[in-house]
Amino acid sequence: MKATRTGMLWGAALAVFAVAAISVSGQGLPITFERLLNSDKELGNWLMYSRTYNGWRFSPLDQINTENVSRLKVKWLFQGRHAEKFETTPLVVDGVMYLTRPENDIYALDAETGRTLWTYSHRNPPATFNCCGRVNRGLAILGDRLFMNTLDMHVIAVDAKSGRELWKTKIFDYTEAGGYASPGAPLIVKDKLIVGMAGGEKGVSGFLDAYDTETGKRLWRFHTIPQPGDANFGTWAGDSWKTGGSSTWNNGSYDPELNLVYWGTSNPWPGYRGDERTGDNLYSCSVIALDADTGELKWHFQFTPHDLHDWDATQIPVLVDREFEGRQRKLILWPNRNGFYYVLDRTNGEFLLAKAYVKQTWAEGIDDKGRPIEIAGHEPTQDGITHVWPGVDGASNWMSHSYSPITQLLYVFAREERRIFTKTGPPRLPATDPDVEEDEDATRRRTFRRSRPPRFAPEESWGKVIGIEPSTGSVRWEYPVVSPPWGGVMSTAGNLVFGGTLEGNIFALDAETGDPLWRFLSNDRVYASPISFLSRGKQHVSLAAGDVLLTFSLDGE
Amino acid sequence: MNTLLKIACSVALTASLWGQIQPKVEGHESPADVARRAVEGERATASAPQNNPFESEQDIQKGDVLFQTHCSNCHGTFGAGGRGADLTTGLYRFGGSDAELYRTIRNGIPGSEMGPPQVNDDDLWRLAAFVKRLGLAPPEDAPGDAAEGKVVYLTAGCGSCHSINGQGGTLGPDLSDVGRRRGLAFLEESLLKPEADLPTNHRGTRLLTSAGETIAGIRLNEDDYSIQIRDTSGNPRSFLKHELKGIQRDDPSLMPAYGSLLSEKQIEDLTAYLATLKGMQ
What homologous superfamily is domain B44-134 in, according to CATH? Predict the structure, then answer.
């Protein structure tokens, strides 16, 4: 038995060596910041959430292209065997795939076979308080270390070779104010780890943190709600700023030339009621540009002042340098949850353009300062309103957009939807004693019956992948799907756009025309964004559907 | 380093790594671990009472206050839905019994947006009591004769599509507990204007095939490439969309409008009968 095992080990060792010997995937560990800065050149690797700091989610691989994509086949599956939604973006370093599995497990897999190399598990307490599932969206990597945020508000570093825990730092008390959590992927900038948090459905107080990647020590914290003494303090009535939400629950982007980190912020709290928080409620529903070294705010732009529809601005910022109205500019492209596509100058936050990219019924347009010209009557009522487009989950949400430098189009998997918006009662924190609380609407609430509930027929909402011309916001092409999506898109140098629908149809579209060229029916909901990488010199595409991560290659080889 | 040495070092290193890796692979969280986590929740609820011990008006009132704090953000002030499900229909995906409502609230719904609220056990029951109240039709006196209404139900063909306590067809919604969930006005409207409220899982759909055939049924499922229906004979069938000439939805409803088929008295009696259907107890 022992001899057999030893033999197997030697065999495995030789096999692993053979992989390393023929691999042209790219360099292995360690990952330096220099390599992250140049991650666009690491053809076979996927080194950060959006692959590159500009948030493009673009793969320069072209082995799989419009000519041969019909030969794409499943090569292997990773069975997550979990009940939660699989929202992860894996990282790939030289043939090793690192991914998170709900709730806070890390798996290292052989990217050629999907076989597990090691696992790490962070056990959360039985109850954590993330609004939208006990999910995690992925990792960051620097040196030999992987970094993960957790639902109980920790950030953890583990050894990428063994899965051994190196340090664990508490971000915040996860039970405060009804519940904090951190489901997003962190972002490395220089020697710092940028970490966001969730909780805008509760009366939390938002922030964005930076940690020392060596020690786990916190280096700076930026409060996404201005504190007393800060510039811009006073855009919240009374004490409402103290519980104003404005979380930072997705990933961000980084411009090394400007040394600015761009991050989107969530809705103000309470989400569907503004009575107690009159004012613009900065910096909710905004993009913030922070100095990466100090966390100092350089500029901000608020897409939806005094939001009442949960229209977070937590989309991935897409950074593009191109001509805009005759001038070469550093732009930030932002298809927002509120239904408008925005273009800003990312050096100073100057508003340049806004154009609706879905049906929207709440604003006549956006004025020349970037402020919406609102249509009266879009505010939620206690009985509920059903005429406002987009719906509560928005025209876009957290799933990634993609920008192709080849087609120079921005790809967005957009949501067309109307839903019910209901205004909540006076804001209450969980500490409220039920014995003493009773308000004038209580009797009405307990006797209220609608004659008929609102129905939203399936075909009244739908989804579409669109190719947007960045400088004008006009839509070059559209690929419709039956349901509003929860998955992101990736474009490639093979002139393809990959994504997956809520029904589990994984597709490849022609990036120039939007024509569907290939599909696979996974039959489970896609709540993730695709990646592409090389293993043994061959291009692969991975995307999670349900609790399975599917990996495709040409002819499955 | 010469090539041979490189290979030797590499093999040795990999072998030692493999040795380290192996136990961890065996020790990784298995499906059993995942199940155990779920069972921890189940076990705690298995010993919980089947009937709600906190169902007094005062408890429901407290449940309402708790609901406004913990649930209304997604389910709306009146439980009418929004980000979360509409709780006023009396239909609950994970069961509407006291114990099921308690369990759903206590554990949240894995894989969905819903997590558990931060409240103690007594308050979980109070929340369950309030949610149950949201889904109950208010008590009303029906003007019609329920016994006569039952005769109408049996003779007018309702049972060919609908079922009550396991008896009847499968094309229309099950009516076993419709009187618990729905008020008189709603029931009457459903008879006179069936298209007014179409449950999404019973949507009338007509498919026009390329052969020129029209196949009517209810939509069971659909994605971008195919649609599945239950035809009017009760058979589940699947069609590729590119092989269809057209898909017609809801218009008209598969259920006839009974205003022209039954007298006003019969409608009134049938409404009264439906209001007595409180579910299999």
Answer: Cytochrome c-like domain (1.10.760.10)
B146-196+256-275 topology per CATH: Cytochrome Bc1 Complex; Chain D, domain 2 (1.10.760)
Domain holding A460, by residue range, is 48-428+455-554
Write down the CATH number for the domain with range B204-249. 2.30.30.100
Please, which pLDDT band fits residue B76 given cuts at 50, 70 and 90? confident
Residue A275 lies in a domain: yes
Q: How far is CA A234 from CA A247, A307, A475, in A?
A: 18, 16, 39
Looking at residue A453, its pLDDT comes to 62
Q: What is the ipTM of this complex?
A: 0.84
Catalytic residue among A280, A310, A510, A524: A310
Q: How far apart are CA B20 and CA A1, in angstroms?
A: 18
pLDDT at A451: 57
Catalytic: A310? yes
- Asked if residue A33 is part of any domain, the answer here is no
- Counting the structural domains of chain A, the total is 1
CB B246 within 8 A of CB B208: yes
Q: Which residues of chain A have pLDDT under 50?
A: 1-25, 436
CATH 2.30.30.100 domain span(s) along chain B = 204-249
Chain B CA closest to residue A428: B69
Closest CA to A290 of A232, A179, A395, A210: A210
- Residue A83's Cβ-side half-sphere holds a number of Cα atoms within 13 Å equal to 19
Quick check: A121 contacting B, CB < 8 Å? yes
- Over residues A346-376, the pLDDT tens digits come to 999 999 999 999 999 999 999 999 999 999 9
Does the distance separating the beta carbons of A438 and B61 come in below 8 Å? Answer: yes
Q: For B9, which residue in chain A has the nearest alpha carbon?
A: A17
| Span B149-206, pLDDT tens digits | 999 999 999 999 999 999 999 899 999 999 988 889 889 999 999 888 777 778 889 9
State residue B35's pLDDT score.
45
Cα(A33)–Cα(A44) distance, rounded to whole angstroms? Answer: 17
B13 falls in which pLDDT band (50, 70, 90)? very low
- The Cα A531–Cα A92 span in angstroms is 9
Residues of B in contact with A528 (CB under 8 A): none
CA distance B224 to chain A (A): 6
The partner residues of A330 in beta bridges, in order of sequence, read A321
Q: Which residues, in sequence order, are bridge partners of residue A550?
A: A77, A543
Query: Domain for residue A184, yes or no?
Result: yes
Tell me if B123 and A434 make a contact (CB, 8 A cut-off): yes
Q: Which of B43, B69, B228 to mutate to test the interface with A (most CBs of A within 10 A)?
A: B69
Interchain CB contact of A219 with B (< 8 Å): no
The pLDDT score that the predictor gives to residue B138 is: 78
Answer whether A205's CB lies under 8 Å from A159's CB: no
- Chain A nearest-CA distance from B76, in A, is 5
Q: Rounded to an integer, what distance in angstroms lies between the CA atom of residue A347 and that of residue A507?
A: 36
Cβ separation A422–B82 shorter than 8 A: yes
Distance from CA of B227 to the nearest CA of A (A): 11
Single-letter amino acid code for the residue at B148: E
A6, part of any domain: no
Residues of chain B with CATH 1.10.760.10: 44-134, 146-196+256-275
Any idea what the CATH number is for the domain that residue A547 is in? 2.140.10.10
